[in-house]
Amino acid sequence: MAQLHLIETGSGAPLVLLHAFPLNSSMWAAQVEALGDSWRVICPDQRGFGGSLLPDADVDAAPSLDALADDLAELLDARRISEPVVLAGLSMGGYVVMAFWRRHRERVRALVLADTKASADSPEAAAGRERIAAEVVSAASSAQLVDELTPTLLGSTTRSERPLVLGRVKALVESAPPDAVAWAQRAMAARPDSFADLRTVDVPALVIVGVEDAISPPADARAMADAMPGARLVQIPAAGHLSAIEAPDDFNAALGSFLDQLR
Ligand code: MLT
């Protein structure tokens, strides 16, 4: 288990936001500001990222997103949160939401899957992750990821019209610790297909996707929404894979209206 650093603010029912790869909890700044008045918003840094350490033993252990799901269960215990939480995750955070549903579903009040997908990696995608893992560890730096990842993490509108967002994301990617990047890439490569699990979702569910998302395009979001009984799908215009950062007002409107209906 890893002890997680987190941002926590507000009071009320718990809402957990799980960040994308290779970012950290700071990606949720706009959501924390918008929702902290009415929810107890908890944004952990997943192991290895932000202020959370990658436990030594895990650097060589077989990485699995199940460990990230269990980290969250332990964090909730440590915060004495026994009531079910609203759990939202973007991209890798969404993969962890699905792992958490598999392992701890009794702790979930509602779930939000943003810019993520339920399918497993193809052999080619898994091989690409292994290449990245080996490269960043050997270079002891994530700098090379900036050119490789930024064009797919951000939509074309953001890349051409939102220089501050572009700069912020590049800085986050560059500062990601190489060991954490490698661990997370291997964990994502090992993740299973989650469609059968989504068919068992019996809590309110929301799927959000940026229309310009090139990593988990709208077709993946539609497939997840179709798999979850009663799920709602919201598409965010002029946003790519990091819709919560690229179009925070639209993202917050979609999330806020879903949350309002839970109350
Ligand atoms: C993420 O944003 O978390 C990653 O792009 C997910 C992935 O690589 O599949």
Notable traits:
263 residues, alpha/beta, seven-stranded mixed beta sheet, 12 helices, 7 strands, 14% strand, globular, binds D-malate
Give the strand order of the largest sheet, numbering strands 1, 2, ... along the chain: 1-3-2-4-5-6-7
Task: Give the end-to-end Cα distance, rounded to a whole number of Å.
Answer: 33 Å
Largest sheet data: 7 strands, mixed
Number of DSSP strands? 7
List the ligand species: D-malate
Structural class: alpha/beta
* Anisotropy-based shape: globular
N-to-C series of helices and strands: EEHEHEHEHHHHHHEHEHH
Task: Kindly report the average pLDDT value.
Answer: 96
Number of helices: 12
Low-pLDDT residue intervals, each spanning 5 or more residues: none
What gyration radius follows from the Cα positions, in whole Å? 17 Å
What proportion of the residues is helical, as a percent range? 40-55%
Strand content: 5-15%
Topology:
Layout: E1 6-9, E2 14-18, H1 29-35, E3 40-44, H2 65-78, E4 85-90, H3 92-104, E5 108-114, H4 123-139, H5 145-153, H6 156-161, H7 163-174, H8 178-189, H9 195-198, E6 205-210, H10 218-227, E7 232-236, H11 243-246, H12 248-262
Parallel strand pairs: 2-3, 2-4, 4-5, 5-6, 6-7
Antiparallel strand pairs: 1-3
Helix pairs in contact: 1-12, 2-3, 4-8, 5-7
Bound molecules: D-malate.
Residues 20-21, 91-92, 188, 215, 241 line the site of D-malate.
